[in-house]
Design goal:
The protein is α/β, with parallel strands linked by helices. The protein contains 10 helices and 13 strands.
């Protein structure tokens, strides 16, 4: 039997949003996956969120008045105290008072807002591959690269609430602008762009054929091409994997971490063999050698990590 308190978790992305009603045993009773359609403007995105919550509740056999709280993982910079999304370019939001507006739509139910990668890492650590490790770094690799930190068993935000943004790590300070950061060298968007430029320079690859065109080449096509031993794709992805290992090693050495969780569409598509290659690339750069025991794993919850993490955080704070 589903048990209260019932909370809603929302993983809000620039392309899709995942919404689910979660009970006290962390079972997802009903869910709604809908297109964000950010091009329609910020208010339209909010309206679609509200409709998604109502739809998920209906599928759960619940009324929205049965909800104890709502948790949202949103992309961009977040003022958690005020529940405001300060800046989310892919949603066309600036200073969006998301907590207040969602709360007003649902009879003033409490609403928690956090960064999308933070909630995903939290969900994965509590219910997935993280196994409740007290100290964890999550690296989420997709269109960009984001991160989330759990230290001493709790999400760590730092003085400005922005801790964990490993994608902004400078790897090549002497490189031209646009090529200096971890994200600019290792995100799926960057890797696909680099491969396409090399194809245009007459390097052979089957990526375009496997993807069915040049537009919106996703992580699954990249992984399929890699697994078919495409020389160019393997070269580019393996170079990026080595850099991911170096970025992870710096964090492991700095914080003495026992675990790295890799998530996002890229890591999910490539799976644990990719995590193993990252671990292999990481270990020579870790200090001290005892930290070679640091485990590198891929997400177990996949698309549900953010939804469940947001629901957990909302329940812990309000229910």
């Amino acid at each position: 039997m589903p048990t209260p308190p019932f909370v809603v978790g929302i993983d809000l992305g620039g392309t899709n949003m995942q919404i689910g009603v979660v009970d006290a045993s962390n079972a997802v009773l009903g869910r709604s996956k809908i297109k964000t359609k950010a091009e329609r403007g910020g208010d339209a995105v909010l309206e679609r969120m509200i409709e998604g919550v109502e739809d998920a509740c209906e599928k759960s056999g619940l009324n929205t008045k049965d909800l104890a709280a709502i948790g949202v993982g949103a992309p961009g910079a977040i003022d958690m105290k005020l529940g405001v999304v300060l800046e989310a370019p892919n949603l066309r939001w600036n200073n969006m008072p998301l907590a207040d507006r969602l709360s007003a739509a649902f009879d003033r139910r409490p609403v928690l807002i956090d960064n999308d990668v933070n909630v995903a890492v939290y969900g994965e650590n509590r219910l997935g591959a993280g196994e409740n490790a007290h100290d964890v770094l999550g690296i989420w690799i997709g269109t960009g690269i984001g991160g989330g930190l759990i230290l001493n068993g709790s999400l760590y935000y730092g003085s400005l609430g922005s801790a964990g943004e490993i994608g902004q790590t400078v790897l090549f300070p002497g490189a031209p602008l646009g090529w200096r950061l971890f994200e600019q060298n290792c995100s799926r968007k960057h890797l696909v762009g680099r491969i396409l430029r090399l194809i245009d320079a007459n390097r052979a690859s089957s990526l375009i054929d496997i993807a069915g065109g040049r537009d919106d080449i996703g992580a699954s096509a990249l992984a399929e091409t890699y697994n078919k031993s495409d020389t160019l794709v393997r070269e580019v992805v393996d170079e990026a994997t080595a850099l991911i290992g170096i970025a992870a090693a710096n964090a492991v050495t700095l914080l003495s971490l026992p675990m790295i969780i890799l998530g996002g569409g890229f890591a999910e598509a490539f799976g644990q063999p990719f995590a193993d290659r990252v671990a292999h690339a990481m270990k020579p750069h870790v200090f001290p050698k005892a930290l070679h025991s640091c485990r590198v794993v891929t997400t177990r919850l996949a698309d549900d990590a953010g939804l469940l993490g947001a629901a957990l955080l909302a329940r812990e704070k309000y229910a």
